[in-house]
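User: Show me sequence and structure for the first protein, then do the same for the second.

Assistant: Starting with the first protein.
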Amino acid sequence: MEQESGDLDSLVRKRLRALRVAQGWSLEELATRANLSQSSLSRIENGQRRLALDQLVTLARALDTTLDQLVETAADDVVTSPMIDGAHGLMRWPVKSDPGMSVVRQRMVEPPPDNPSRMRAHPGREWLVVLSGTAILMLGHRRLRLETNQAAEFPTMMPHAIGAEGGPCEIIGIFDRDARRGHQRDTPGVGD
């Protein structure tokens, strides 16, 4: 147990330094943001000062992260295989850090519905990116054309539908818990 505690201590110190460097901040800049002295921060990063919980909370806030993210240990199960729904052309991956989130890959061949009554509206948010082809996103009364590598993010309370234009397209969609539930009710296979 002592070994694990020492490993976690070292990991947190490395993360603090890496996050500071990634922001492009000097010790002085982060110390000012966290209301610490520069020497205290240096000793924390170098393992010469004890990690105190109140200082970690303050540092996490200053670095725009959470205490949980600072102290989480590496997961052994890094790789996730998709759940495949061949009947609907879907692959779905759960997001382990947020079980309510799902990532879905879908191949579309049909255009979006012409009839506005066939558009969905439900609680949640969606984000999607077009991997190949051209997608049409119907969003309320708007018709948005999304080319390969373009993305869209929208609240799903807005009536919406998506389809292909001029041939097949593939998209990746990220659904929060509410959006996934809305698609589970509306379309068998989406977000299951």
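Switching to the second protein now.
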Amino acid sequence: MRVNDYDSFAEAYAAENETSLLNAYYARPAIVDLAGDVAGRRILDAGCGAGPVAEALRERGAVVAGFDSSAGMLALARRRLGDGVVLERAELGGPLPFADAGFDDVVASLVLHYLEDWTTALAELRRVLKPGGRLIGSVHHPFVSHMTAPPGTDYFATRSTSQWWELGGAKNLMTFWDRPLHAITDAFTAAGFRIDVISEPAPGPGARERFPEVFAQKESGQFLCFLFFVLTKA
């Protein structure tokens, strides 16, 4: 069985993301909020999937482009965004088919944790940013990863972990790489980024009403899941 085979469940995954708590009411609004006023800014969506983040940024006035390793996901993104948006098939962690300093911002929502080594990925994302450009992204929260790991797991290790996702009536094996917080921040600074924001945001509007059972025991209205960041090309 192939691992992380988004082509095999692209339609089901995209449909789930339209209404799910973790995507529609948490990860996506958090990224858009961190991006702020994007009117007129040229933004690259790294690992764009079916294009919901790119669409949300375009609705706020950004000029968007994207890439993904999944042909199935890119087909859905083209359907959503139209032929006027540049969408390329490319692997995060390999050479990207975009010019140097071509973007004001890059968004990388929940994609870096698929990679064991971030060195090349961050170097390429930095390359395509203009001087002073921003990398806005999210990864699995290292504290959550550690708390859900088997007993005795070394928090300080960079380690692979696997999950079964059930989508479209089939089980799909997904593998990610967990790492401690200092390894995340060290990777960013070593790649030539300044860390401006590290965020553990509240869910977006409507989350509590849509998922009351999740928030029944959470008086703050918040929960811990992903870690968000805004970096600037130094």
